[in-house]
Specification:
Strand order of the largest sheet: 2-3-1-4-5
Number of strands: 5
CATH architecture: 3-Layer(aba) Sandwich
Structural class: alpha/beta
Radius of gyration: 17 Å
CATH class: Alpha Beta
Bound molecules: adenosine-5'-triphosphate, magnesium ion
Number of domains: 1
Order of helices and strands: EHEHHEHEHHEHH
Distance between the termini: 33 Å
Number of helices: 8
Length: about 210
């Protein structure tokens, strides 16, 4: 099977982390090697110096694109959850990466703002976060994504199933589970890694 990059794009609260985590776990259950690159973790450990201007956002998105390209080159699937608000920059990654799958997490700002899982919208409305996507910074919806999930209308399960169906149909993942991995197992593994990084002074507090 050929390695690929599956990139979840969408505004804050649109469901990128929720769905990418599920898809990542499922890919591993189907016996393939994968890495999960969540925007939050990348910004903490890989792009600490970058802010949220267009220039910095573009550098961040291109860095994740390059990292995904490297992973794919060595046969590892890359699962990315990062806003990536600009069409032109997303398309640069599309050009770079041989098998690039874009999942547009389509969710109206009003709904994402009601969810506000990290309290960011409230802070943005209070003027505490400048350049906040969807409020004071643009989000350009993808013109031709491979998959669109309507996360304000579908359940997590429905969105997840449609993504997996697409990947199976494209022969990117096998249609059968090889081993069962419970999410807790993955979370434990991540906690150990985080602790290890923190002790070495690599990860900032809060990750
Ligand atoms: N179909 C769906 N797909 C994904 N998430 C959904 C769906 N329906 C409801 N939700 C809920 O929407 C919220 C999405 O939050 P999540 O942290 O995944 O967003 P995000 O896009 O990663 O935001 P951020 O850019 O701030 O990291 C979760 O609370 C999730 O339970
Ligand atoms: Mg997230």
């Amino acid at each position: 099977m050929k390695p690929f990059t599956i990139w979840f794009t969408g505004i804050s609260g649109s469901g990128k982390s929720t769905l990418s985590k599920r898809v990542y776990l499922e890919i591993k259950c189907r016996g393939l090697k994968a890495e999960l690159l969540d925007g939050d973790i990348i910004r903490t450990n890989f792009s600490q110096e970058l802010g949220f201007t267009k220039r910095d956002r573009d550098i961040n998105v291109k860095r994740i694109g390059f990292l995904s390209w490297l992973l794919n080159k060595h046969g590892i699937i890359s699962v990315v959850a990062a806003i990536a608000p600009y069409e032109e920059t997303r398309n640069l990654n599309r050009l770079l990466i041989p098998n690039y799958i874009e999942v547009f997490c389509n969710c109206p700002v009003e709904i994402a703002e009601k969810r506000d899982p990290k309290g960011l919208y409230a802070r943005a409305r209070r003027g505490e976060i400048p350049n906040f996507t969807g409020i004071s910074d643009p989000y350009e919806p993808p013109k031709s994504p491979e998959i669109v999930v309507y996360t304000a209308k579908e359940t997590i399960e429905e969105s997840f199933n449609r993504i997996i169906e697409y990947l199976v149909n494209q022969k990117l993942i096998p249609n059968k589970i090889k081993q069962k991995i419970v999410p807790e197992e993955l979370e434990k593994e991540e906690r150990i890694l985080r602790e290890y990084l923190k002790n070495l002074g690599f990860a900032r507090k809060g990750w």
